[in-house]
């Protein structure tokens, strides 16, 4: 049984930093693209960042580029999201997701429906 468990969310002030963590179990972690998505109140879930493999390519959405950094430690089956210079518009539930790196996975890297497994989410609230 695959499980993704996020942690590290909370209430912070604008300009502060947070580091989200996601620990995976039940899958061969190194074979998966790992990503972060977020969903703000009243809005659709949106892509934040992905990591193809350890030490490999990462990509960040324009809205977070230069402020957020995704990283992973395959030995710990963990993926992280370092969030700096947080803004009130970053307020959302943040989700960790995993997609098997097979077939035409590269066509679905920023698409929710490309991901096989999801965590339960962690709330990030950024106050003015």
Instruction: State Rg.
Output: 14 Å
State the helix count: 0
Poorly predicted regions are: none
Structure summary, number of beta strands? 11
Q: Tell the overall outline.
A: globular
N/C terminus separation: 40 Å
Fraction of residues in helix: under 10%
The biggest beta sheet is recorded as: 7 strands, mixed
pLDDT averaged over residues: 97
Beta-strand fraction estimate: over 45%
Give the SSE string: EEEEEEEEEEE
**Which structural class should the secondary elements be placed in?**
mainly beta
Structural write-up:
- With 128 residues, this protein is mostly beta strands.
- 0% of the residues lie in helices and 49% in strands.
- The chain contains no helices and eleven strands.
- The chain has strands at 3-7, 10-13, 18-25, 32-39, 46-51, 58-60, 68-73, 78-83, 92-100, 117-118, 122-127.
- The strands form two sheets. Strands 2, 4, 5, 6, 9, 10 and 11 form a seven-stranded mixed beta sheet that branches.
- The radius of gyration is 14 Å and the shape is globular.
- It starts with a strand and ends with a strand.
List the defining traits of the structure above.
128 residues, 11 strands, mainly beta
Care to give the gist of this entry?
The chain is mainly β and 128 residues long. It contains no helices and 11 strands. Strand 4 and strand 5 form a beta hairpin.
Write the layout of secondary structure elements.
Layout: E1 3-7, E2 10-13, E3 18-25, E4 32-39, E5 46-51, E6 58-60, E7 68-73, E8 78-83, E9 92-100, E10 117-118, E11 122-127
